[in-house]
Amino acid sequence: MANNLAHAMKPPPAPEATPPREEGFLEHVLPALRVTAVTLVLTGLLYPLFMTGIAQVLFHRQAEGSFVADDAGKVVGSELVAQAFSAPGYFQPRPSAAGEKGYDPMASGGTNLGPTSKKLRDQAAGALDKLQKENPDAPGPVPVELVTSSGSGLDPHLSPAVAQWQAPRVARARGVALERVRSVVDELTEGRDLGLLGEPRVNVLALNLALDRRFGAAPAPAPAAAPATQAPGK
Fold first, then answer.
1. Are residues 45 and 137 both part of a single domain?
2. What is the mean pLDDT of each run of 10 residues along the chain (234 residues)?
3. How far apart are CA 50 and CA 176, in angstroms?
């Protein structure tokens, strides 16, 4: 009986320990691939399509690029991107360092030149001299805004004061009274957004189109005079 009692009180043998199962490579990679695929579909496909659809419905013109057309229906630019105007009968935007010739929407950017740069000083001096010669009747000194380029090189706006500074040149080139040109600038001056954000501004492209509608197209700039040449044999 004692043997039976000792046998009953003997602890059962411990189970044999099984070695831990090694996880395979795919068990680590597949979850990461699934998360990546879901994230790409949600943020790279569905979300852009959803936002594009909303933009097309609520802000169709802006979503298409805010293009501007003339009276004939021909697209002449975008109200968001500056472009060069060389004729004296048009208002000129700020200088541009975007691209090789400036105003390149595919190469937006500034000069990246610092205040101690000789190249920047030479560019500003050249622009200053050119503006003074082209605007002899302008009131006051040349505005800094017309000598320095914007950070993007594509700023489509001017401050109202800078537009008014150019008004005498535009009026003289078009052969109209100065006050008539100034009134067009005043009509197209945009105020601060919501009355608080930004500064008053004038869109240069819209301003020049308005001048053409009211006064007709500005005359083309006169070609540069050819240098005098000496007759052969003299």
1. no
2. 58 63 73 90 91 87 84 87 92 92 89 89 92 93 92 93 96 95 95 89 96 88 55 45
3. 51
